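Reopening: TonB-dependent receptor still failing for me.
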Amino acid sequence: MDKVPYEYVGQQTAKTYGTSITTAYEVSKALTFKSITAWRGWDSTEPTNYAGNLKGQVIDFTSPTLWSVQRVSPFVAYEQDLKQRQFSEEFQILGKTDTLSYVLGAYYFNEHASEFNTNDFTLVLPPAYLAALGFPAAVGNALTAQNIDLIGVNLGQTLAYHTRSESVAGFGQVSWKPMILDQRLELTGGIRYTHDSRSIDETSIPTAQPFTGQLPNPGPTPGPSRSGDLSFSNWSYLGSVSFQWTKDILTYARFSTGYKSGGFDARAGVDLATGRTFPFTFRPEKAKAYEAGFKTEFFDHRLRLNGAIFRTDYDDLQVPQYAGGNGFIPNANARYQGFEIEALAVPIRRVQLDASLGYVDPKYKEFLIVNPATGVVGDYAEQAKFPYVPNWTVHVGAQASHSLGFADLMLRVDYAHTSKRYFHTIDLLNPANEVIADPGQDLLGVRIALSDIALAGRATLRLSVYGDNLLDQHTRQAGIDFGPSIGIAGVNYGEPRTFGFDATLKF
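Support: Ran it again with your exact input. Result attached.
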């Protein structure tokens, strides 16, 4: 592996804090009032450098050739601060009779979020494209005459925005167990109305970069300053039927509709290599979900076996994209279908075996996007991928415990497998998508614990030693391809083989 000098731009930190209060008042055994109040805050500082101290050919008006070898960077953010605050309140009325159980409720959500991001990056493009950035045509012609195929332009940008979101909803659900069939049949219906409001105020201005190789003034604004307000509303429904064949065997079928609000993408701007403006807004996402399954227990509850098949049809699925330093969210039509199986067995006392298997087969039915080379809208449903979605997930675990008198000794082993995952949707915008993809992961972990160690009073202590990623896999957790105009891609790797110790005190 090649190594390059790396500039440390600061420590990344994140702080999350909050509180929640759940209160309930039981009017009678048939009627309860319940309130769930929550507040959360999140602060993050994320200075970022996607490459080391690199050098390359850039525009330089102090040079007689109009170029020189100077410092370049695909992306560096010395200051990148994010904040988020949210408040929610949910009120429920829960009731029941001999054959009915119901819940009526109202929900409120309010969120404020902001980002301040000063970043510098090098745009790499053919000299002929320089005119689109405001350079005189003679500059591009002079570089072409020197047989320069690609030239770097160092740009700086400060992005600052503040978003506000508000959601109000009312809902109700009723379950009915008729007296026939010994009340083994249950029918459920539900409805929800949601109204969402979204707004944004954004400023994006060009800033002087610390590197040589840009216009005497910083050039055209990398992104616009803008604001907007949007509102959406939706009715959602649910219906299900279940039947308890015996006390240990249940089957069910369910249909529901879902909704996700539309909104703004603050990173949607102008692709400086092509001059194309990415969409600033995206539409609401709606879904119709179908599921059928079973829940069973056998051998005096020593074996549990559950399974389900499912399908979800999406209209205007929100598919985040990233290309050329810009983000945008096109809407696509798609469907997910697959199955899940999970099992838990207790063959002998204090020994547990568990396993799960999941498969999903997602496909786009329509994925319209503009080809950056031609400017023509095309349907790329056959080529598009589903980011971060593996087709297969497998988990196998085993656990054994033994009482030592003063504590319980526990040994647990876990193995997890996920199949290949892509980090971007379409190679047309992110040509390194295949190169940076996660080929799949096989994770093995072991934990040995001493629990329920009695201390003074009611306090207990739990001591554990553990090993994670014992196969020492180079796990790819996330990846990003900046696209052809910036010309770099990268991968974030997970922890290597790790051993550790932890202690938990309960009192």
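The domain at 13-506 is CATH 2.40.170.20 (Maltoporin; Chain A). If you still see a failure, please send the error message rather than a screenshot.
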